[in-house]
Specification:
Strand content: 15-25%
CATH class of the largest domain: Alpha Beta
Shape: globular
Number of helices: 18
């Protein structure tokens, strides 16, 4: 029986042995990246180094990275999908020796000293080639030499990695699958199927090409890279022979805990199993988000909206299995005990996490009350319409339209199942098809908000974004001068048009306070101060008083941007060369982001 911790230790042992250096994991919430809400993959924070920037730990690195993906949220509850997962990753920067990486992958998977998976239970895929790039015979031959028996050539949709839009660094990948032993679904059954026979556990991306313009043939990248990622939970489930990711490790402990207090058994029905798993998954994601150093709390926008959705979805599932939400705090303790060993920010925020979960449970209870009132208004409207129709010799169906049902769900957080239940009690049907259509539209918008890829910290490489990035440094300096050093950045979103900056403050800013901050920033701009970047050790940055959250996320060296007499911050850049480039700073909006967090939106004009 393998645990999550044992797999992490094997990963550390293996890559250290082969000359790779371990780098600290990053926050689950990206900084200055409006294209994604959360860190979605282990390589996400490393794109600047994949694009050529020198990494302080060298060219051969590995890590364990916490990630959140919401594009498959409706699949959560099956045997393999999770919203939060830990990604085991390793990289070679500036070289792309496929044969060596495939040899390492094969050794880690099959060696008795490491995972000891029989080669007969493994399958791999490689890129089949197209008009952009040739078939990856090099990867195929490397697997053959290792002794891999099942090798599939698959097209770009299965075995190609690229930045959003397909322009930029890109390349073929080779993916590794565990054969679950299920029979083939058809003669052409392969890892591209969704039949469940093959479960992906590892992926090696060979970033060896560059596409300058969409549709053009790929050119060879001057400095190619290799980026790999292994899903921790899926691999542990495979090693333990578990039928799902929820049936081993910490997730299994939470399932067992829920079973002690629920009025419905874990495997009493397919629905019950799914409800258990959603509670288990969504509360774990909530603990990680609440425990993150950037301080996100439930709200109606951005990361806070996803967090609220996780908690409220867990509450609704708990209701369906007669599980009292007062036990959410105990589940949080299980997760903090497990993951606090690896993530200091989670360990230090135990009570805050439990308090915020409790607050959201209480708020959702009130939302349910509001939803009941709105439901009654909808019914009253239909009844009134029926009376009017009857007077005119017409009839009206006893049916709630999908638009009204979706509004109850989206605006009031009123669960669809509860609307349907109440409607049936009143003799009404629910237009489920229209509801599902509107729900799918909502899903697509959520996916678009969650999709995209990280581009060196900002949404683009324009000068205007760089200038706005510098403005956030001046803004933080002004806020700290006004309210004290306890004010910290809690999130940032920068586009070429504006900046959005979240920070902790216990009150709404007055008009006079806003003007005072604007004047501080514009005074620094008027002084035409050079923006100076120096690379130094973390200890040197601390000694110089640089602003930064000093956790283990930093490497041995960091970049410190100094605006003399105003600001000194650890940051990845890019920035203006001089404050005069910013011209004029204006705050266009100051509002609440979440409990205890304020948000400023500002422009340069």
């Amino acid at each position: 029986m393998k645990t999550d911790r044992q797999l992490k230790e094997l990963w550390n042992k293996f890559f250290t042995k082969h000359g790779f250096k371990k780098i600290p994991g990053y926050s689950i919430i990206p900084e200055n990246d409006p294209t994604v809400l959360f860190t979605t993959a282990g390589m996400h924070p490393l794109v600047p180094y994949l694009l050529g920037e020198k990494h302080p730990y060298g060219e051969k690195i590995y890590d364990v990275q916490r990630c959140i993906r919401t594009n498959d949220i409706d699949e959560v509850g099956d045997n393999s999908h999770l919203t939060l997962f830990e990604m085991l990753g390793n990289w070679t920067l500036g070289t792309c020796d496929k044969k060596e990486m495939i040899k390492l992958s094969f050794e880690f998977l099959t060696s008795p000293e490491y995972l000891n998976i029989p080669v007969e239970r493994l399958a791999v895929t490689v890129f089949a080639g197209d008009e952009v790039a040739p078939r990856d015979d090099e990867a195929f031959n490397a697997w053959k030499e290792c002794g891999m028996k099942e090798i599939f050539f698959l097209p770009k949709e299965n075995n190609w990695w690229a930045l959003g839009g397909g322009v930029g660094p890109c390349g073929p990948d080779t993916e590794m699958f565990y054969d679950t032993g299920k029979p083939k679904c058809c003669e052409t059954c392969s890892p591209a199927c969704d039949c469940g026979k093959y479960l992906e556990i590892w992926n090696d991306v060979f970033m060896q090409y560059l596409v300058k313009n969409a549709g053009e043939k790929a050119e060879k990248l001057p400095r190619p890279n290799i980026d790999t990622g292994m899903g921790l939970e899926r691999t542990v489930a495979v090693l333990n022979g578990a039928k799902s990711v929820y049936d081993s490790g910490c997730l299994k402990r939470v399932i067992d805990f829920i079973a002690q207090y629920a009025g419905v058994g874990y495997e009493e029905s397919e629905k019950a199993t799914r409800f258990y798993r959603i509670i288990t998954d969504h509360l774990r994601s909530s603990v990680f988000i609440l425990g993150d150093e950037r301080g996100v709390t439930p709200s109606n926008v951005g990361q806070g909206y996803i967090l609220r959705r996780f908690i409220r979805r867990a509450i609704n599932c708990a209701r369906n299995i007669k599980f009292d939400c007062k036990h959410f705090a105990e589940i949080a303790d299980i997760y903090v005990d497990e993951y606090g060993q690896d993530y200091e920010d989670i360990a230090s925020k135990r009570e805050f996490i439990k308090e915020e979960l409790g607050k959201e449970v209480e708020k959702f209870s009130k939302a349910i009350e509001e939803g009941h009132k709105e439901f009654e208004k909808v019914i009253a409207g239909i009844e009134k319409h029926k009376e009017f129709a009857a007077k005119n010799g017409q009839t009206v169906e006893n049916k709630l339209g999908g638009k009204a049902v979706f509004r109850l769900y989206d605006t009031f957080g009123f669960p669809f199942e509860l609307t349907k239940e109440l409607a049936l009690e009143r003799g009404y049907e629910v237009d489920e098809n229209e509801f599902q259509e509107r729900f799918k539209e909502h899903q697509e918008k959520s996916r678009q908000a969650s999709a995209g890829m990280f581009k060196g910290g900002l949404a683009d490489d324009s000068k205007q974004s760089a200038y706005l990035h510098t403005a956030t440094h001046l803004l933080l300096a002004g806020l700290q001068k006004k309210y004290g050093k306890d004010v910290k950045q809690r999130g940032s979103n920068i586009t070429p048009e504006r900046l959005r900056f979240d920070f902790n403050l216990d009150h709404k800013m007055t008009k006079e306070e806003i003007e005072e901050i604007e004047n501080f920033v514009n005074d620094a701009i008027a002084k035409e101060i050079p923006v100076v970047c120096k690379t130094m050790t973390v200890e040197e940055a601390k000694a110089e008083g640089a602003e930064g959250i000093f956790t283990n996320k930093y490497g041995s060296e960091v970049k410190v941007y100094t605006i003399e007499g105003v600001s000194k911050e650890i940051c990845g850049g890019p920035h203006a060369e001089n404050t005069k480039d910013l011209h004029h700073f204006k705050i266009v909006k100051e509002e609440s982001s979440s409990s205890g967090i304020r948000r400023i939106k500002a422009i340069l004009d």
